[in-house]
Design goal:
about 270 residues; disordered C terminus; 7 helices; Deoxyribonuclease I, Chain A; alpha+beta
């Protein structure tokens, strides 16, 4: 299974154009089965971007889940998960820190064949103190340490951490394996034209085997966003046990959908 993580910068490229078709081309270039996208939203220039995740799903032929972080100028903006496989449930977590830009994490329970996967897609803040609070929330019993989790687990996103030795990557590695380090291919993803920082990362739980992890560097990828995407190839352990039926939860800062949400539900 191929997993992708990419900050699409509001689908606005280096030329200043907001172009979902160009983003879709890059997703198709990677051959991703599941893609975690950050900064998915509209700048208000095109009507189709009233439903940015739905637009990308239509262009790629993939199933979508969208986690609204905020409305920017009245237009939806947040995290998106695209999947070649059915999505049985989604949950959206608010990671925002007061006084800082709105941030969030989106979870989708994905069902490829006889297996299932908890897929988390997040976008952390620019300030290191903010990121530490957000990482602590991610690693809490409300999200990654939720006792109800029983699928193999993957976490991707833009972590905005400049170094693997900084606090947030070190904390996460105590629970999950950094796919790029496992594959010995820790490539930079930002800025797209001359990448020097590895802001974008993918982590896996113990029931997931990393077969490879690379930075996708193509002409379209360099043009479509200010980040380059990472692509990880994984294999799920056959011994991973089947999960119970997804259940709704009620907790502060958490919203839950059982079954993939419709476009109408997302636009309420």
């Amino acid at each position: 299974m191929k997993i992708m993580s990419w900050n699409v910068h509001g689908m606005r490229g280096r030329d200043g154009r907001s172009d979902p078709e160009r983003v879709a081309i890059v997703i198709e270039e990677t051959g991703a089965d599941v893609a975690g996208l950050q900064e998915v939203g509209a700048l208000g220039r095109h009507r189709e971007l009233l439903d940015p995740a739905g637009t990308l799903a239509q262009l790629t032929g993939l199933t979508q889940a969208f986690g609204l972080t905020e409305l920017r100028g009245g237009y939806p903006y947040g995290n998106c998960i695209l999947s070649r496989f059915p999505i049985s449930a989604t949950r959206s977590y608010d990671l925002s820190v007061e006084g800082r830009e709105k941030r969030g994490c989106l979870r989708a329970d994905i069902n490829p064949s006889a297996f299932a996967l908890h897929f988390f897609n997040c976008h952390l803040g620019l300030n290191r103190h903010e990121r530490r609070r957000q990482a602590a929330q991610l690693l809490s019993a409300d999200i990654l340490r939720d006792a109800a989790l029983c699928y193999p687990l993957v976490l991707v996103g833009d972590f905005n951490a400049w170094s693997s030795r900084s606090a947030v990557p070190r904390w996460i590695r105590k629970e999950l394996a950094d796919a790029a380090l496992v594959a010995r291919s820790a490539g930079a993803t930002f800025p797209a034209m001359f990448p020097v920082l590895r802001l974008d990362r993918a982590y896996v739980g113990p029931a997931v085997r990393v077969l490879g992890c690379t930075v996708h560097d193509s002409t379209f990828a360099r043009l479509a966003s200010d980040h380059l995407p990472i692509v990880m190839e994984i294999e799920l352990e056959t011994a991973a046990r089947c999960p119970p039926t997804a259940r709704p939860i009620a907790a502060q800062g958490v919203t839950t959908e059982i079954g993939a949400p419709s476009v109408g539900e997302l636009n309420r």
